[in-house]
Amino acid sequence: MQFNETSLKAYLESRFGDAVEIDSIRKLTGKGGAAEALKQFGYGRPFLVSFRSGGANRRLVFHRIRPNAFGREREEDRVAAVWLDFRVFGRLPRHVPAADMIVRTRDGELKSVRDAEEMLLVTDYREGRLYAEDLVRIRDHTTLGPVDRLRAERLGAYLAEIHRKKRSDPALWRRRLRDLVGHGEGIMGLADSYPAEQSYAPPDYLRSLEEKANRWRWRLKPLDQRLSQVHGDFHPFNIIFEEADSFWVLDRSRGEWGEPADDVSCMAINYLFFSVQRFGRLEGPFAELHDAFWSSYLGAASDDDLLKVIQPWFAWRALVLSSPVWYPDIDAEVRVKLLEFARRVLDLKRYDWLNANRYLQPRG
After folding, report:
1. Which residue would you say has higher pLDDT here, 157 or 105?
2. Contact (Cβ atoms closer than 8 angstroms) between residue 226 and residue 359
């Protein structure tokens, strides 16, 4: 944690409302002995500050939540850990209380956020139309406009471009695989959201999808060289077009880094989703858009291995689109076909995007 003593002194004086004299700053390394030798790993890097303020001697411990492979891989994980600790330490009898939450600015200053009750995100605004409106129009009228194919191609090329940026971080790669299967927003969380009384996705069926997906997780763990820059939620409701092929993306999710198949599957399955609603299969204008998107992406990305790893991400997105929570108004037949798509692709060694209809057959 880089900051200077001047910044620390300014924070303490703001915190206690009086002049501060710092006596010492030292790392807390424990008292040694057998217990410390047994536990070599720790989440934080605490240091003790001894100082005088208002005629009193005071001591505070400052904790940094360091990156690790146990749920602290991302910055947002570490922010969440600080927020939780500040909220709950004082609620447990005899627990050492938390005194404050602070942030370190880019300039090295320390500032308190102890009075915060909620964090809000503020973004810029961009004019445009959701790409989903294009797909609804095509579904309802079954004709392509003059720029529809161009937009599908542009989206594929955009993904290929952002996916070229790679990162070497095996722990983060494994985290992303765990999130895919076990996170509340992932496959298990989606499976838990299905009502028990519905017939199109009985509990045994959903459990089998989880089990297949977890086998994929073990299969993919060695492939950490695939960790790439991603959007993380690249679907038609998160893209707005200003004009012909000029667009903005919204609501990047689940971190900066992941598997390119996450983004590709998220968009590709939506062409299937809207087409099945109208035709019962991938057909007509949606088949043209689907193929244009795939051809554009694969032509620019040169990532043939993507077709060998995309299966569990397709299964996850199928669970989202067939969910009665997220999409309450679609027909049961559409849900069944999407869930069957998930089941079938999880059994594949290689996904054949040119013959997607073979995976959209009715259950039986």
Report:
1. 157
2. no
